[in-house]
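If your schedule permits, I should be very grateful for your opinion on a structural question. I have a record of one protein: its chain in single-letter code and its fold written as C-alpha cells. Would you kindly read the sequence against the C-alpha cells and tell me how you understand this chain to fold? Thank you for your consideration; the sequence and its C-alpha cells are set out here.


***
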Amino acid sequence: MKPEILVMAPSPSPAVMAQFDVHFTCHHVWRLPADEHAAFIATVGAGVRALATTGTIGMDAALAARLPRLELVAVNGIGVDAVDFELTRARGIRVTNTPGVLTDDVADLAVALLLAAARRIPALDHYVRGGQWQARVPLQPARTLRGKTAGIYGFGRIGKAVAQRLAGFGMALRYFQPNVVAATDVPRSASLLALAQESDYLVVCAPGGAATRGMIGPAVLAALGPQGTLINVARGSIVDEAALVAALAAGTLGAAGLDVFANEPEVPVALAALPNVVLTPHVGSLTVETRHAMGQLVIDNLLAHFAGAPLLTPVQ
C-alpha cells in the first residue's frame, strides 16, 4: 500500500508531479479553493504520513494537529522558517529541504536585481516605451558597479555565489554573519551595521526566522545611505518594510531590488508606487531546470524516508 502524502502546492515540473502519483497516494490540497482546505484536510489527515510543502507555506501547529501520523515534512525550498520546529522535535517528525540545487538561479536573480536597480533598467524601459526618448526628456544618470563595494549579509551557499558573480564586475566584497566563514578571502565586517556603512550595495542572503526578523531596520538603512542600494532575495521578514518605504521615499536610501516581502503576496501600495525600487514576485528559483531539481529532491527524500534509507538533505 502506498504511503499517503498531503501535497500543499504543485511543482511546475510535470515529471515531478507524475512521480508523486506513481509512488504515493496523494491528497492534493492545492487543487481546491482556499476556503475548502481545512475541511479537506480533516477528511484525509488521519492517514497522512508525509507533508510535501513549500518554504512559504511551511507547517504550523494547526496543520500538524490534523496529521496525527505525520513522519516527515518535505519542504520544496531552502527556507524552513515557516515550519514549527518546536512541534516537529516534540513529535519526532523529520524535516528536509532542497538546498544546493537553487543556489545559482537565486544568485543570478540577486545580481539581476542589483543591475536593474543600479542602472535603472525598469525606468529606462518605461522611458523608451512612453515616448520620452523621442521627446528628448532629460535622463537621470545611473550608478556604476565597478569600484564599488558589495556587502553580503549571510554568507552561505547563495551569499558566496553572489560574491563570485559580483567580483566579475570589479566590485570589492565584504560579508557579515554571526559566525566567521572559513576558507574565504572575502573580509568579514564587525557587524551588520558596519557592513552597511562599508557598502554601496547591500545584498541580503541570510536565513529567515526569529533570529533575523527586522534586522535590516532604520539604523542599517541609514548607514547604507542615500547613494546605497538594498537587494533582498532571502526573506521579507528580515527587512523592516515600513522603514524601507520611508527611507526610499525620503531619499535617505538610494534604491532597492526586492524579490521577497513581509506579507506575500501582498506588497505595500506605497512601496509599489516608488520609482527607485525594482520588484519581482519571489521567483529566485523559478526556472524550468531548478524547479524540476527542487521537486526531484523532494521526491527523493520522500522515497528515502519510506525505504528506511538516510534522508538526502535533512534539516532535522
Summary: The chain has a mean pLDDT of 97.
